[in-house]
Write a structure and sequence with these properties.
The complex is a heterodimer of chains A (52) and B (375). Helices cover 44% and strands 0% of the residues of chain A. Chain A is mainly alpha-helical. A 9-stranded mixed β-sheet of chain B has the order 7-6-5-4-3-2-1-8-9. The chains are: A mainly alpha (52), B alpha/beta (375).
């Protein structure tokens, strides 16, 4: 995969991206578009630190 | 005031495992020795009152996360009582969560957690050889088989979809990312999160040859490649959060991005403390100048104090290198504990700075390549 300056993504934001064929990237783009609040509940705070 | 979004409660100060990388027991802080083994009924009662007051006066809900030590050492009856007391003081918007090593998890405990709507996250580092290299019990035996049994027990529960939050792993950069990814996918967990090993500029994390080396960044890039190429992956939160920031969205993970993270710690005896991961940097760095306890101080006022505000501010990156870095919005400067050096305090980039830059660059490559392929 060749290196590319992608400041355009940050500048243009998610709406400037075409649909992608990675299932994960497509999901994340959709979540950013819709500010998916349910994700916050699924990814609860338990994941933030080491356990013993 | 720094709004509190996470109250981390150490309901048991001891652990039934002795993981060699543990920031509580094996990174130079012996504060746990002076703590009672388990949270008392009186402390639990005080906690319920204080949290009820905090949510009412703050006007915003927060999550309550049970930690330890190992929180299951509190026992089934006491955990049942604790959650009942807390729920009587807190609105449903305040979620209950628990991070466990899973070894003691049984059906009775699962019934308690299901009854109180507690989300369970289980710590496991990967396949047996990976996990048992560091996550040993007090006799030096590996714990992998017992943790896998716990995962199966949760997955088999009728309310598994609500109970099972996911798995939490600590990275061993000596492993092969594709092997570790395949293992986690095989567990059927809904989400997985990966943590870097603790360390700082004075005590380098395990596996890092130098501050400028990129063992963790290379490992995470390998994991990213597996993740983004998989048509049916579990969620990997640290990667999700960083990619979402690159896409212009927001993140919720501590140490990622520049949004504030309001965490307060309640120790087993009721002592109020700062971010407990600071234990791995300077000695007693998680302590307030004078000891404050939920038994004799007002938690809301402590969280509104100048010292708490200073602690909260100190979590934000301050090094010139971070403040001028084009990746700061995604990286966030990393965990404060990972920025530490005796010479400069927390005014350093993360000891994982080079790793994060490598990973972010790989994410940008993926986003660009995928966009081109669809064009």
């Amino acid at each position: 995969m060749e290196q590319r300056d992608t400041n355009e993504e940050r500048a243009g934001g998610v709406d400037s991206l075409p649909i992608v064929d990675s299932a994960t990237l497509a999901r994340l783009i959709d979540e950013v578009r819709h500010d998916e609040v349910t994700v916050g509940r699924a990814y609860d705070r338990t994941h933030n630190r080491h356990n013993r | 005031m720094a709004a509190i979004d996470t109250v981390l409660v150490k309901v048991a100060s001891r652990c039934n495992l002795d993981c060699t990388y543990c920031y509580v027991y094996n990174m130079g802080d012996d504060g746990w020795r002076s703590q009672p083994k388990r949270m008392s009924e009186a402390t639990i009662a005080a906690l319920a009152v204080q949290l009820g007051s905090l949510v009412e006066r703050q006007g915003r809900p927060f999550s309550i996360v049970l930690h330890g030590g190992e929180p299951l050492l509190l026992g089934e009856g006491a955990l049942d009582s604790l959650f009942a007391r807390l729920r009587s003081s807190l609105p449903p918007a305040c979620g209950f969560h628990l991070q466990t090593n899973g070894v003691l998890l049984n059906d009775g405990l699962l019934s308690v957690f299901a009854r109180h709507g507690v989300g369970i996250s289980i710590s496991i580092d990967g396949p047996e050889a990976t996990h048992d290299r560091f996550r040993l019990d007090l006799r030096g035996r590996g714990s992998h088989a017992r943790v896998m049994a716990a995962i199966e027990r949760v997955r088999a529960h009728p309310q598994a979809a609500k109970l099972f939050s996911g798995l939490l792993a600590v990275i061993d950069p000596d492993t092969t990312p594709s092997d570790v990814y395949a293992f986690f996918k095989s567990t059927g967990a809904p989400s997985v999160d990966f943590l870097y090993r603790d360390g700082n500029h004075d005590v380098l994390p395990y596996g890092k040859a130098s501050v400028d080396s990129t063992e963790y960044g290379a490992w995470m890039s390998g994991l990213l490649d597996c993740y983004l190429a998989d048509p049916a992956p579990p969620r990997i939160r640290v990667l999700d959060d960083m990619i979402k920031l690159l896409l212009g969205g927001t993140a919720r993970k501590e140490g990622i991005g520049v949004s504030d993270f309001g965490i307060v710690i309640i120790e087993t005896d009721g002592t109020i403390a700062k971010n407990d991961t600071l234990k791995s940097s300077a000695g007693e760095a998680d302590r307030f100048a004078t000891t404050k306890s939920i038994h004799d101080a007002d938690l809301f006022e402590v969280c509104n104090s100048a010292e708490f505000e200073n602690y909260h501010e100190a979590q934000r990156p301050t090094s010139p290198a971070c403040l001028s870095c084009p990746e700061l919005r995604v990286c966030g400067g990393g965990m404060p504990a990972h920025r530490w050096s005796a010479a400069a305090g927390y005014a350093n980039p993360s000891v994982f700075c080079a790793d994060q830059k490598l990973l972010i660059a790989r994410m940008r490559q993926w986003i660009s390549a995928q966009a081109r392929s669809a064009a």
